[in-house]
Amino acid sequence: MSEKRIIVALAGNPNCGKTTLFNNLTGMRHHVGNWPGKTVTIERKEGKATYEGTTLEIVDLPGTYSLSSRSLEEEITVEYLLHEKPDVVVNIVDAAHLERNLYLTLQLIELGVPLILALNLNRYADAEGIIIDTKKLSASLGVPVVRIEAIDDTGKDQLIQEILKKPAATANFPHYSNEIEQHLAELSNILPEVSRWDLIQYLIHGAPENFSDEIRTKIEKTRKHLEEIFGTTPQEVFADQRYGYIAGILHESVSLHADSGGKNQSERIDRFVTNKWLGFPIFLVVMYAVFQIVFMLGAPFMDMIDTIFGTLSEFAGDALASSGAPDWVSSFVCDGVISGVGSVVIFLPNIVLLFILLAILEDSGYLARVAVIMDRIMHRLGLHGKSFIPMMLGFGCGVPAIMATRTMETERERLLTILLTPFMSCSARLPVYLLLVGIFFVPQVQGLVMFSLYLLGILVALIVGLLLRKTLFKGESSAFVLEMPPYRIPTIKGVLIHSFEHAGLFLKKAGVIIFPAVLLMWLLASLPFGVEYGSSESIIGMIGSAIAPIFAPLGFGIPEAAIAVIMGLIAKEVVVATFGTLFGVGDEALGDVLMNVFTPLSAYSFMVFILLYMPCLAAMLTIKQETNSWKITVGAAVMMCVVAWIVSFIIYQGGVLLGFG
Hints:
Elements: E1 4-12, H1 18-26, E2 30-34, E3 43-51, E4 54-60, H2 72-84, E5 88-94, H3 98-111, E6 115-120, H4 122-127, E7 130-132, H5 134-141, E8 145-147, H6 156-164, H7 178-190, H8 196-205, H9 213-230, H10 234-253, E9 254-256, H11 265-273, H12 279-322, H13 327-345, H14 348-363, H15 366-380, H16 388-393, H17 398-403, H18 411-420, H19 430-440, H20 443-470, H21 492-526, H22 539-551, H23 559-567, H24 574-583, H25 587-597, H26 600-612, H27 617-627, H28 630-657
Parallel strand pairs: 1-4, 1-5, 5-6, 6-8
Antiparallel strand pairs: 2-3, 3-4, 7-9
């Protein structure tokens, strides 16, 4: 290992390309943990890279707009910069939105850290006619400025060279109005060891309690004087001063092409995409197209994997039979391991396709617009638009989605969002839909049927949310402010990273959770030894027969379906594996078996129940962790199961009355 070492912290606004630069510099050689000492954890990424004999230890700080220590992300960033004291801080800024990004830059300068400004996303600034003079910008800020593109190697070598120089902290602090500077000078005289950053914090938030009464009185008088002079709070005073300083910097270093026009490209697109009449229909069309593409492109790959597992099962069965292995060994290998795991892995291509398409929508900037579109709808139901952000994450996995509710402003809104997020259809439910929709519905409507399930989850969440807000969670929702990033063309590398990370988690589940669950089901279906595999005399058959009547009014009152529902509490992917294991058949034969026990209506009712009833064990434990209450956790589980039963009952019985049974 190199003897030379430089600790580099990456700081910047959300959506500025910070994590992309982190991946570029580290070559994806990094590990993920959590920030220490936090009751509520946020992911911490660290990585290493060696350049010219020097090891760079790179820390990706949480994305934040400021260092005001109001949010957990801001608190973590300030604490790290003040106490860990990295050798270099690289501030990544969005060149197309320089005014907003430079607010954090000024605070980093005030903090006194050794700073390099990495000017990213210049291609979007160029497209909007924005011309940035990096030399003038560097001179105005007093820090090195490097033009980069985080997605490739543009400016990478120059940035690394600046890092290796280990620039000193600038003494070129932003100069505010004479009134402000005079008060800062007065406080500096009586507190000579205190940094400019801390002096500003004292004027904004007040003096620490361990200061003497004399100093505390002086600071408080100064704060009141600022309020009288400027007619607003000290916090707003400094915000106005910083933006005024930024305006001067932009005047000196930024210009526009004469033919740049009025609205930029993102604003022109948003005239349609976020239109109050067109926005939601466009969203519905986009999501329908996503699911239709998943079915159309995924089918050939599913057939290929099905053939592989079918051949493997036949080969294993023949090999075991010829070797004289006992019947239970053959059943264990073919019915348990191969049929169970194979019935889940077969859906991997569709899951990868879904995540590729969702990654494209997210990286392009469209999903941020969806939150704004849903804000209008949710506010009419008494909900909060910001709640839809964790809900969108719930389309991937419920665990990080529930954890994402930490960004909610009030405890009431956070708890309500936690209760609604599990109604979103996570990717673990996708194999169930793919199996049953592929069996019972013609290709022309398969995408529409699956889309209806996702839409139903949103609709049920809104209705349940409305009922809860009218009863247990009364109160007004806070204002909703969300930055809409510019539209961007997603990079192939970024999309593939997002997609295959999720695919890897799915395969990990198949090995860590699904495989043991399959073995447990095979054992219960085989015991007591001597009974027919999976029959009503087996242990699992007796359990299924006991609880099956609960689901009879929903159209799937068979023991196998009841057991699948119970096993789905471990992980929703296990639902499909349960059918494969209990019936002891591969995917192709499983379709023929299910055709005899389900109808299209009862299959849809079953999918609705899987959609709405309580999520997997990991998600329920996350609810317990986030709420610190077993009462809320158990109550949420009961509520979701009741809602699932009622909605499935309405769909099935209503379908029967309409003649679809």
